[in-house]
C-alpha cells in the first residue's frame, strides 16, 4: 500500500484530561495537530497489527475531517480493519459496545461531550481500550509523553472514505466497514430491559419527552423509544444531530435543559422527561413535578435494578465518583453490597467492572452506567428508569420519596465557577490544601464539626495503581460534606467545582428546598476557600 511517513513537529499541550484531549476547534485545526495525537496514541500501544479499530463521534463540527485523518493513519500503522458508524456517528456508549461486541483492539471516540460545538466550539479525541472503556492513565500518560517529542506519523495516501453508506471499502490494505450506528446498541438494550412492559406503559397513555439536544442520541432515541417501544411520534425532540447542536450547549442540566424542566413542572406536562448530552453518555431525569438529582438517580437505579431482566439476579456492587453524594452508599450498606469511591471520570470504573466487583456505576455529573459497556450511558439510564416505572406502576415522585423514606435523603448541589483565571484557581486550591491538617476536629456554626479533611487519593484495588490529588474533601460528623475540585474537561481558564452535600435520615425532613438546605455549607465553603474574594465572582456560573 501507499504508506507515507510524514515529518511533523510536536505540540506541548496535548495532555488528555478527565476524558481525552479536548480543545477549541481552531487548536485542532493547526497543521498535524490531529495527526500527531492519533499517531502518539498508536505509538503507545502494542499488538494492534491486523486488528480492528472502532471510530465514531458525536457529529460535531470537525468530526468529518478528523475521522478521515484517523482512518488513514490507522491504515498507515497496520490496523487490519476500521469499523466506523455511518456518517462518522457513534454515541460514546455505542462505541464502547461496538468495541466489545466485535472484539476490537480499541477505539477512537471523537467528541467534546457536553461542551458546545461549531467552528469556535470544542472538539475532542479519546482512546478506548479493548474492554470498551477509556484508556487508563498508564496509556494516556504515555501518549502525552509521546506527543511532546513526536517527529513523524504514518498514513496511507488515499481518497476520503465514503461514510454515507453501509458497507465495506478499502484504504490501502485496510478494510473500512461502515456500520449502522444504532442497530447493535438497540439490540443490546433489548436484552437488558423488559421492552414488552415498557411498550405496555406507553400504550396505556404514559407520556414522555426526550430532549436529544440536537446531539448524538437523536437517532438512537427515535429508533428505540418511538419505533421499538411505541412512544408517540414527537416524544423525542431536537432529535437530529447538528454540527453545532443547534447553537446550544448540549449539557443536560437545569440550566441548559431548562425548557424540559419547566415543561415537567407545568400542570399539563408529561409524566417523564429525560435528556442526554453531546455524545450520549449523560442523562437527566425529571419526573412530573420531581427533579431527580443524578446522585439520587444512581442510588434509585441501583436499588431497583433487579426489576429489569438484565439485572434480575441482583447486582454485585456499586461504584461512584468521589464528589457524587453518598446516597448510593446507603443502598449498598443496607443491601450488603460492595461499594467503591473512585476519582472523577469513567476510566476509573473499568477495572472494578472487569473484575466483576461492581455492576452499577455513577457520577454526580449525570452519568450512570453498568457492566453492559464501559462508558456511562444516557439512554441506558432512561430505559432502566422506564423499566422501573413500568414494573412499579408508580410515578417518579412516589418512587423518589419512597426511596428517601427507606434510605434517608442526601441533599446535594454542585456550584461551578467557570472560566476563572487558572492561576487564581490553583492558588485557591493550594492554600486550602495547606489548611486541611488543622481543620479536623474544628467546629463551625455550632453544629458542623470536621471529621476528616484531605486531598482524595485513590488506590485501585484491582491493579494496585494510585491516583492522587483528585479533589479536596471536608467531611463533617453529621455526614455533611464539602468538596472542591478543578475540572479536567474545560478548555478555557479553570473551572472550580464546589460540591455540597447534607444527609437527612429516613425519618428526617425530606421536603426542604435544596439550595436552602445547603446554604450553611455554601457559606462555610466560601469562608474556608475565599471563593468570592479570590475569583471576584459573587455567585456561581452554573448551579446543578
Ligand atoms: C466532567 C464531570 C465528570 C465526567 C467528565 C466527562 O469532568 O465532572 O464527572 O466524567 O466531565 O463527562 P470534569 O473534570 O470537568 O469535572 V463527558 O459526558 O464530558 O465525557
Ligand atoms: Co458526555
From TrEMBL:
Residue ranges of the region described as Disordered: 1-22
UniProt-recorded name of the protein: phosphoglucomutase (alpha-D-glucose-1,6-bisphosphate-dependent)
Pfam hit, one: PGM1_C_vert_fung
Any coiled-coil regions, as ranges: none
Species of the source: Devosia albogilva
Bias (Polar residues) ranges: 1-17
Cofactor names: Mg(2+)
Molecular function via GO: phosphoglucomutase activity
Record key words, sorted: Isomerase, Magnesium, Metal-binding, Phosphoprotein
Domain Alpha-D-phosphohexomutase alpha/beta/alpha: 14-152, 184-286, 295-407
UniProt entry tagged with the keyword NADP: no
Catalytic reaction equation(s): alpha-D-glucose 1-phosphate = alpha-D-glucose 6-phosphate
Protein family per UniProt: Belongs to the phosphohexose mutase family.
Amino acid at each position: 500500500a501507499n504508506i507515507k511517513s510524514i515529518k511533523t513537529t510536536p505540540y506541548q499541550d496535548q495532555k488528555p484530561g478527565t476524558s481525552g484531549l479536548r480543545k477549541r476547534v481552531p487548536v485542532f485545526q493547526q497543521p498535524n495537530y490531529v495527526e500527531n495525537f492519533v499517531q502518539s496514541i498508536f505509538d503507545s500501544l502494542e499488538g494492534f497489527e491486523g486488528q480492528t479499530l472502532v471510530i465514531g463521534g458525536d457529529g460535531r463540527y470537525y468530526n468529518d475531517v478528523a475521522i478521515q485523518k484517523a482512518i488513514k493513519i490507522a491504515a498507515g500503522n497496520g490496523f487490519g480493519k476500521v469499523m466506523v458508524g455511518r456518517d462518522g456517528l457513534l454515541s460514546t456508549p455505542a462505541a464502547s459496545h461496538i468495541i466489545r461486541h466485535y472484539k476490537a483492539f480499541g477505539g477512537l471516540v471523537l467528541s467534546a461531550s457536553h461542551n458546545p460545538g461549531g467552528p469556535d466550539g470544542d472538539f475532542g479525541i479519546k482512546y478506548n481500550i479493548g474492554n470498551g472503556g477509556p484508556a487508563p492513565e498508564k496509556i494516556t500518560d504515555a501518549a502525552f509523553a509521546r506527543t511532546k517529542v513526536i517527529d513523524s506519523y504514518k498514513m496511507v495516501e488515499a481518497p476520503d472514505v465514503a461514510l454515507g453508506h453501509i458497507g465495506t471499502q478499502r484504504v490501502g490494505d485496510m478494510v473500512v466497514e461502515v456500520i449502522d450506528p444504532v442497530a447493535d446498541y438497540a439490540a443490546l438494550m433489548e436484552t437488558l430491559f423488559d421492552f414488552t412492559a415498557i411498550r405496555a406503559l406507553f400504550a396505556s397513555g404514559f407520556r414522555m419527552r426526550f430532549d436529544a439536544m440536537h446531539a448524538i442520541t437523536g437517532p438512537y432515541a427515535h429508533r428505540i423509544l418511538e419505533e421499538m417501544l411505541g412512544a408517540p411520534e414527537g416524544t423525542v425532540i431536537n432529535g437530529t444531530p447538528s454540527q453545532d447542536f443547534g447553537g446550544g450547549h448540549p449539557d443536560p442540566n437545569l440550566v441548559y435543559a431548562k425548557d424540559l424542566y419547566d415543561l415537567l413542572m407545568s400542570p399539563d406536562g408529561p409524566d417523564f422527561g429525560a435528556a442526554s448530552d453531546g455524545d450520549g453518555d449523560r442523562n437527566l431525569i425529571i419526573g412530573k413535578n420531581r427533579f431527580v438529582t443524578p446522585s439520587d438517580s444512581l442510588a434509585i437505579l441501583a436499588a431497583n435494578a433487579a426489576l429489569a431482566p438484565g439485572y434480575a439476579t441482583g447486582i454485585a456492587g456499586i461504584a461512584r465518583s468521589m464528589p457524587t453524594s453518598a446516597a448510593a452508599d446507603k443502598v449498598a450498606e443496607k443491601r450488603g453490597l460492595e461499594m467503591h469511591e473512585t476519582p472523577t471520570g469513567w476510566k476509573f470504573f473499568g477495572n472494578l467492572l472487569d473484575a466483576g466487583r461492581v455492576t452499577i456505576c455513577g457520577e454526580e455529573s449525570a452519568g450512570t452506567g453498568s457492566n453492559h459497556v464501559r462508558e456511562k450511558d444516557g439512554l441506558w439510564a432512561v430505559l432502566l428508569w422506564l423499566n422501573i416505572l413500568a414494573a412499579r406502576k408508580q410515578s417518579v415522585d412516589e418512587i423518589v420519596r419512597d426511596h428517601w423514606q427507606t434510605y434517608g435523603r442526601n441533599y446535594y448541589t454542585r456550584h461551578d465557577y467557570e472560566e476563572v483565571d487558572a492561576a487564581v484557581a490553583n492558588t485557591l486550591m493550594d492554600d486550602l490544601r495547606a489548611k486541611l491538617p488543622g481543620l479536623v476536629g474544628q467546629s463551625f456554626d455550632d453544629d458542623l464539626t470536621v471529621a476528616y479533611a484531605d486531598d482524595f487519593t485513590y488506590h485501585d484495588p484491582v491493579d494496585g495503581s494510585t491516583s492522587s490529588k483528585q479533589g479536596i474533601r471536608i467531611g463533617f460528623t453529621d455526614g455533611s460534606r464539602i468538596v472542591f475540585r478543578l475540572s479536567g474537561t474545560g478548555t478555557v481558564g479553570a473551572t472550580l467545582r464546589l460540591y455540597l452535600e447534607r444527609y437527612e435520615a429516613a425519618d428526617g425532613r425530606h421536603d426542604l428546598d435544596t439550595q436552602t438546605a445547603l446554604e450553611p455549607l455554601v457559606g462555610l465553603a466560601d469562608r474556608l476557600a475565599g471563593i468570592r474574594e479570590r475569583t471576584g465572582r459573587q455567585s456561581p456560573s452554573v448551579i446543578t
